Amino acid sequence: MSYKRTRGYIGFLIPGVLAFLIIVIVPFAANIGISFTKWRGVGTPEWIGIDNYERAFDDTTFWASFQNNLQLVVAMTVIPTVLGLLLAVFLYDNITHHFGPRVASFFRAGFYIPQIMPMVVAAIVWRWIYQPDWGILNWMLNSVGLDQFSHNWLGQQDTALRAIMGMMIWFQLGYPLVIFMSALQRVDPQLYEAASIDGATWMQKVTRITVPLIRPEIYVVILTTAIHAMKTFAPVYSMTKGGPGKATVVASYFSYKNFFERPNVGYGATIATLLTGVIILLSVVFISVQTRQERLESQ
């Protein structure tokens, strides 16, 4: 009976399924096949088995790219999630109550504006900010007498990745902020009032009430931003081209270089396949953890 009621809707799924097969499944399967070949993008691919994968695991640049990706996870997931949660609670509890929802919405929109900008545009603007000779960051440091802190931010190995991380924190902050402010609207205010009567501090109310009640939204933010961090390409391409040295090379940019600049399409496909595998594994782990947590809470 259930099938009879729902079979009429199957036809509406066909366009989406076909699009998913053509746009995602077929290219991904082709990429996996190419990863087992030696191919320069023209001519006939030469089958070499798992040689590209063995090469990747022995490649120091490959491992450096994933280490840099992990640091970008901190800049795009950990720090924006924590700051976004604290800012959302502050705007919802203090700004809304003292100045009204319109003022809180104004600040929320202000934090979210970077999200509507193209990533390449934001990266180019920040490259100007970091410019060592006439960039505004060094100009501000020199203006207040902090000349010793002026750097060639994107031209030195010890500061290049940190500079990109700083830009990504600014760019990413509005996303968790908006989601968390929406999630706070379903939290019963009486819980906060009862906690205040019991003498709970602001931070205790955040950690004991807010975080447990909006945990599903926190999982969504962590998963989506972590995947985004693993796929980071535009900031590196626009700001540093992976340099200086290997300081800012990431997996997606390393794959791009092998695809289009060297060219070594088979090896580039191998890196893309491994990156996709890591993202799929990360997604499965997060979804499993969330499902287990929801099951425990429902018991």
What does this structure look like?
By secondary structure, the chain is mostly helical. Helix content is 74%, strand content 1%. The protein has one domain (61-260, 272-298): MetI-like fold. It has a two-stranded antiparallel sheet. A hairpin with a 7-residue loop joins β1 (37-38) and β2. α4 runs antiparallel to α12 (215-230). 28% of the residues are buried. The mean pLDDT is 90.
In one word, what is the shape? Answer: globular
Helix-strand sequence: HHEEHHHHHHHHHHHHH
Tell me the structural class: mainly alpha
Number of helices: 15
CATH architecture: Orthogonal Bundle
Low-confidence stretches: none
CATH class: Mainly Alpha
CATH superfamily: MetI-like
Number of individual domains: 1
Strand content: under 5%
Estimate percent helicity: over 70%
Spatial strand order of the main sheet: 1-2
Please tell me the overall pLDDT: 90
